[in-house]
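Q: I'm teaching a short session on how sequence maps to structure, and I want students to see two examples side by side rather than one. Could you give me a first protein with its sequence written out and its structure tokens following it? Keep the formatting plain so it prints cleanly on a handout.
A: Of course. Example one:
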Amino acid sequence: MPDVRIVAKAMNDLADDWHWVTLVEATELEPRVFRALQVRTRCGLMISATPRVVQLFDMGAPDTPTCPRCLDDGLNPALRAAISEVIESSERISEPVGLAERAGGSARCRAALG
């Protein structure tokens, strides 16, 4: 039984934030009704630690959650900052990679490719 991940919020439990909600080992009983061993959010909220039936309602959920901790994707903040720095530094390379390869490239481009 696979996990099912959705953007959702409990009607009275999760305040105003939309969360990544995981239905652990979920089985679809009928459309929008699942039996799950656990129900939890990516940010660590345990909605149910015991098996239960979950009914989903269309409440106009966004494509991604609004909960900042769910958006962090569980990465350590220092690691996330390091990844962001690498991405930003690669965007600052001024010459196209294809052009750099044909012309021998700069040391920065060769290091980024190699």
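Q: Perfect. Now a second example for contrast.
A: Example two:
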Amino acid sequence: MTKAVPGNFMDWVRDQHRRKDDVGDLARKVRDDRRAFSITSAADLSRRLNEDQADWQMHDALEQAEAEWRREAGL
């Protein structure tokens, strides 16, 4: 069964919360952050990670997530 790709990157990230990898950790961080609902793009999320002084694993997870989302979205 093919999973539909949400319309935007942040929706896709939030939907990854069940994963058992760094992308899942990122998704759970985003879902638990009340301020994250104002984030609308990967660039915005990167800025937030920098503001929060997130570790390198979160930045790597963001890169991985964006690449997966683009691939699934056919971009």
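Q: What should students look for in example two?
A: Point them to this: Helices lie at 9-14, 22-32, 42-51, 56-73. Also worth mentioning: The two ends are 21 Å apart (CA to CA).
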